[in-house]
Amino acid sequence: MTTSLTAPRASARPPVESRRKVRESLGERVAPYAYVAPFFLIFGIFGLFPLLFTFYVALFDWNPVAAHTFVGFDNFSRLFDDPRFWNALWNTISIWILSTVPQLLIALGLAHLLNHARLRLATLFRMSMLVPYITSVAATTVVFAQLFDRDYGLLNWLLHLVGAGPVDFVQSTWGSQIMIATMVIWRWTGYTTLLYLASLQAISRDIYEAASVDGAGSWKQFRHITIPSLRPVIVFTIVTSTIGGLQIFTEPLLVSRSAPMTCGPVRQCQTLTLFLFEQGFGQFKFGYGAAIGVTLFVLVVAFALLNFLLSTRIRREKP
Amino acid sequence: MRVRLGFAVAAVAALVVAGCSSNGSGSADQKSFDFWSFSGINQKAAVEEYQKKHPDIHVKLTEVGSSVETAQALTTALAGGKVPDLVLIQGDDMPKFVEQPQNFVDLRTLGADDVKKDYLDWVWSQSVAKDGSVLGIPTDVGGLAIAYRKDLFAAAKLPTDRDAVSKLWPTWDKFIEVGKQYKATTGKAFLDNAGTSVFYQAVQQGDMKYYDADRNLAYDHSPQVKRAFDYGLTAAQAGITAKLSSFTEAWSAGMTKGDFAAVAAPSWMLGSIRTNAPTTKGKWDIATIPGGAGNWGGSYLAIPKNAKNPKAAWDYIKEMQSPQSQLAHYVSSGSLPSTPSVYKDPKLTSFKDPFFSNAPTGTIYTNSLLGLKPFYIGPDSSAIGQEFLNAITNVEQGKGDPAKAWDTALQNIKTAIGK
User: Fold this and answer.
1) What's the rounded Cα separation, in Å, for the pair B266 and B197?
2) Could you tell me the residue ranges of all domains in chain B?
3) Distance between alpha carbon B31 and the CA centroid of its chain, in Å?
4) Which residues on adjacent β-strands are paired with residue B359?
5) A149 → chain B, closest CA residue
6) Which residue in A65, A144, A147, A253 has the most chain B C-beta atoms within 10 A of its own C-beta, making it the best mutation to test that interface?
7) Which class does domain B8-142+297-349 fall in?
8) What is the torsion angle, in degrees rounded to the nearest 10, for the CA atoms of residue B148, residue B149, residue B154 and residue B160?
C-alpha cells in the first residue's frame, strides 16, 4: 500500500503541485482506514466491548438490579462443581455429534448427486437446498414439535401403524436430543451441500470422465475424486458446525415450553447456551451466567484450535 | 476525499447519537404514561375504560409477553435505566423485586397508606419491603377451585352437580381416589398433570410454604410442603394424569379434546381455559378445591424509581384498583378482587359464568380465600417450586424413582439457589 502511494512523490514536479499531491496522498493514506473504520467501530461496540465486559462481570456476584459484589473466581469454581453445567456440556456435545455427523455425510452425498452431469433441473434442486436455511428457526420448531408430538404427532402415528408404542420424544433424553438434532440437520444440510457443490464445480469434469473411461463406478469416483478434492471445505464445515453446535440455543429453548429454559424436568436437552440464559435472564444471576459465557468462549476457542491442528494435518496428507 | 471522510465520521456519530437518544420516548406533557403488562390478563379493558373517563391522558400499554417475560424485561429495564412508568408484576415474581426496594417508588410517598385498608392484608404485606416501603398495589388474587368437565364426568357415571362433585373430594386423598375411579371406568386420564394440578395447589394450603414466618428458608422441613409433595407423587404414580404440562400447546389441545376431565383452576386460570378451549363452552363446571383455603398467584402494579411520570401512574392505580373498579374488572374479565369489601357485593355474589355452566364463581373463589393462613413468599420461592415440580413431573413421566424424588428435589434446590 505505502509503496504505491509514495511512488508519485519520486517524480519531479513543481513545488505547489507536489504539496497538493502530498496532501492528496495523505488523504489516500487515511482513506482505507476510514473505509474499514465502521466495521471496527461496530465490532468494538457490539463485539469486543461485550466480550471484555463479560469477562469482567464473571468476577462478580452481579444482580442486575442490586449491588455487585466482587467474588473473584468463585463463579468458576462453583461452575465446575455444578452438576447442571456438566449435564449441559454433555448434552451440547451429544446434540452436536447427533447433528453434525449425519449432516455432513448427507451433504456429501447430495453434493455428489447434484454435481452429476446428467442431472435434469439441476438449478431447481440446487435452489431448493436453501429453502430450509431461509426458514425461521421458530417456524421450523413449531412444525417439528407437532411432528414429534406424543399424542397427535405424525411420527407417533406412523409408529402406531407399524405397531410400535408411542414415544414421548420431548420428555425422554434421547428423544428430545434426536428431535433437536433433526432440526439442525434439516436446517443446515442444504447450506453445507451448496458449499460442497461449489467446490465440486471447481473440479474439472475431465477427471470424472477419465475415471469413467477407466471403468471407475460412481462409488469409486466419489471415494477417490470427490472426497479428496473436498478436503479443505470439509474441514471448514467441520469447524463452523463445531462452533455452531456449541452455541445451539433456539431449538432447545422452543422445544421446552413446559419447563422454561431447562428443556424438560431433568434438563435432558438443556445446552450450555440455554443454561447460560437460564442463569442470567431466568434467575438474574448475571455473574454466574457470564462465567458460563466465558467458559463457553474458552471451549469454542479450544475446539477451533483442535480442529485447526487436525485439519492442517489432514490437508498435508496426500490424497 | 476529506469531505467524504468527514461525512463518514458524521454518519457514524449520527448513528451513535441516535442510538443513545432513542430512550427519550417518555412523555413530556405530565399526563401520559407508559404501562407494561403481561398478556392474557386483559389490562387493555381497564386502560380503555380509563381513557374513556380521561380522554386527555394517553396510556401507552405494552403487553410484553408472558408474566415471566415481563419480569425479565423489567429487570433489564431497571438495569439499563429506561423504565416504564407503570408495570404489572406477577405475585410469584414480586419477592425478587421486593428484595431491592431502591428500584421502585415507595408508594407511601404517593398516598398508599390511605388506601391500605381496602386490600387483603396478607396480599398487601407481600409487596412491603424490609424497610417498610410499599412497592406494589395488589390487583387481584388467585383463589383456588377445580374445573371439571360435566360431560366426561357423566360418561364416567360420576355426579355432575357442582355441590355433589365438591362433596366427592373433601381431601386430596379422596380426590385421587375419584381420579382412580374415573380412570377405571373410562380408561382415560382424569387430571392434566400432577405437578400443577395437585402439588402447586396443595402447597398453597397452610401457613408455612418454602419460608418460615421469620423469612428463613424452610422448604426442607416444612410439613406443608412435604405433604403436598406426597400428594403430587401419589397422583403421579396413580396413573390418573394425562402427563400434559400446564400452559403448553399440547395442554391446550388436550383441554379442547377432552383428554382430561379435571384441572386445578385458580381464578385467573378460567380466562386461559376460555381462550384455549373456546369450543368447550358450557361443558365445564367449577367445584371446590380439596384440602381447603388457599391462594395461588395474583399480581401487583408498581412504579419504577426512574419513571418519568409517577404521579399519572399513581392516579391510574388509585382509580382503577379501587374496590369498585376491581369489582367492575371482575365482572368483565374475571380477575378476583384483592379488596375484600366487595366480596359480599351482590354484583360479585350473584355473578355466574356462562362458560362454566353458570357456576357462581364469585362465591366459590371468595369462599376459598376465607380462613386462609398467609405464608411468606421469598425471593427463591419460584425457583424452589419449579424444582419440586420437576421432580414430580419426572416421576410422572416414568423416569424418576419415587422413593428418591424428595431427596433429589432437595439436592437440586440446593444447587439452584446455592443454599
Assistant:
1) 10
2) 8-142+297-349, 143-296+353-417
3) 30
4) B353
5) B250
6) A65
7) alpha beta
8) 50
Q: B308 near B27, Cβ under 8 Å?
A: yes
Q: B8-142+297-349 and B143-296+353-417: same fold?
A: yes
Mutate to test the interface with A, among B393, B401, B413, B417 (most CBs of A within 10 A): B393
Q: B299-313: string of b/e by CB count within 10 Å (b at 16+)?
A: bbbbbbebbbbbebb
CA-to-CA dists, residue A39 to A46, A240, B19, B135, B220, angstroms: 10, 22, 17, 45, 54
Distance from the B411 Cα atom to the nearest Cα atom in chain A, whole angstroms: 11
Q: Nearest CA to B357 among B102, B116, B165, B149?
A: B149
Q: Tell me how far the alpha carbon of residue B412 is from its chain's centroid.
A: 24
What ipTM goes with this model?
0.78
Coil vs helix vs strand at B86:
strand
Chain A hits for B394, Cβ within 8 Å: 265-266
pLDDT in tens, B248-276: 878 988 999 999 999 999 998 998 899 88
CB B84 within 8 A of CB B313: no
Cα–Cα distance for residue pair A8/A30, rounded to 1 Å: 17
DSSP-H helix ranges across A69-222: 74-81, 83-114, 122-128, 131-134, 137-147, 154-161, 173-201, 205-213, 218-221
Q: Cα–chain-centroid distance for residue B253?
A: 21
Buried b (16+ CB within 10 A) or exposed e, A282-297: bbbbbbbbbbbbbbbe
Domains and CATH numbers, chain A: 16-57 (no CATH), 76-317 (1.10.3720.10)
Rounded CA-CA distance A171/A150 in Å is: 9
Reduced to 3 states (helix: H, G, I; strand: E, B; else coil), residue A149 is coil
Cα separations in angstroms, B308 against B37, B134, B319: 17, 19, 19
Q: Which residue of A has its CA nearest to B400?
A: A266
Q: Which of B290, B205, B195 is nearest to B251 (CA)?
A: B195
- Work out the percent of chain B whose per-residue pLDDT is above 90: 69
pLDDT digits (tens, 9 = 90+) for A184-227: 999 999 999 999 999 988 888 888 888 889 888 888 888 888 88
Strands ordered across the beta sheet of B284-287 = B262-264, B146-149, B284-287
Reference A112, options A203, A210, A216, A236; nearest CA is A203
Q: Identify residue A229 by its one-letter amino acid code.
A: S
Chain A residue with minimum CA distance to B379: A283
Closest CA to A88 of A293, A318, A304, A273: A273
Distance CA B12, CA A43 (A): 13
Which three three-digit cell numbers place residue A253?
429453548
HSE-CB at A286 with a 13 A cutoff on CA atoms is 19
On whether the CB atoms of residues A254 and A271 are closer than 8 A, the answer is no
Pairing of strands B86-90, B33-37: parallel
Name, of A29-38, A152-161, B31-40, B223-232, the range with top average pLDDT.
B223-232
CATH of domain B143-296+353-417: 3.40.190.10
Q: Is A25 on the interface with B (CB under 8 A)?
A: no
- Give chain B positions within 8 Å (CB) of A265: 389-391, 393-394, 397
Closest CA in chain B for residue A42: B12
Q: Does A83 touch chain B (CB under 8 A)?
A: yes
